[in-house]
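Sequence, structure tokens reproduced for absentees:
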Amino acid sequence: DASNQRVVSSSRSWFAARLERGLDWAAYGDLATEDFGAGLQLGRYRRALTAAGAHVTTGPVTWKGFGSSTTQSLVQRQIRGAGISGPYELGSEIRAGTEKIDVETRARENPERVLARQTLVRFADYQIDYQRGILLLNRPVAATDGFGNPIFLLATFEAESGGDRSWVWGVRALTDVRRMVGSRALDRLDIGATWVHDGAAGIERDLLGADLALQSGPLTVGGEVSMSENPDSSGVATMLHGGLSLLKGDVTLAASWLKIGSEFSNPGEIALRPGSEEVRLGGTGRLGSGELRLSYDWQSFENGAFRRTHTAGAYKQRVGRTLSFEAGLTADRFESSTGTDESDAGEFRAEWNPLSPLTLWGESRLQFASSG
């Protein structure tokens, strides 16, 4: 009769149940695997299914898992912000209530790197017409931020494929190694392993991964390796990152490395670009009321066909309580089979904060040399 259908239980099927004991639980009903891969970048896999799931602790090992027989498929839509609140077209196959809408600010020089992510809340931030697949936001989304970094709408949702049923399941184990060996020399040492299987006909895939997180005083180290397999290809992605804090936090150093194989594919993270590699180095140091920042970024795309480097250094100094000045140097290089583009420049920014709700600023850029 065209009226709205509401679901007031925790499942669209006729039965739902949940059993809890302490922090452990087992459930059947409509589940979102939001925390299944929490903290992961390469192996994150979000689904919203009528499924069975569990969170069980056995000694130092925590197990998470879910399983479902479904006709649904996972879909992601990536839409560049257009400076308007909509409407944005997502497609008419959305299963109601399964969408997750994020506004992501990506790095201008490398769209794989997410600088900021905001998850929107339905009714408070957006409205959606499921029948027509139209998204309308309550505020405009710009194409770029103030620094020229692109802004995207990322919509993840379940779609009814209408095909045969298939099994979708995942299991993750996470252990605190310190508890296993009884060591207190480290502040943190976690090791995790993940296996996700999506048995959809024609696109059957497996996603396997392992991850590590270590912290010892001022030193933090993390890593992740993931392998994807489907009927016609397989690929590997690897990520390492670390940080070091020195002189009571006055000096901080950071480094990271990301390499994605040309055949790697994670349907839940379409921003991960196959055939790319990235190295990032950076450091900050406080000098009295001033701060010195240095950074170096190197990226390679399409298995080395395109390469980009960005080197920057800046010094920021506060004068009194309301004034600050920042001066820096930048160097950019872009290499391809057709040649090399180069740019060297100096940048300056002045900021005045006469009242707490008011900031006045001005900035300039002087191009020293450029080619291409």
Summary: The two ends are 63 Å apart (CA to CA). Helices lie at 177-181.
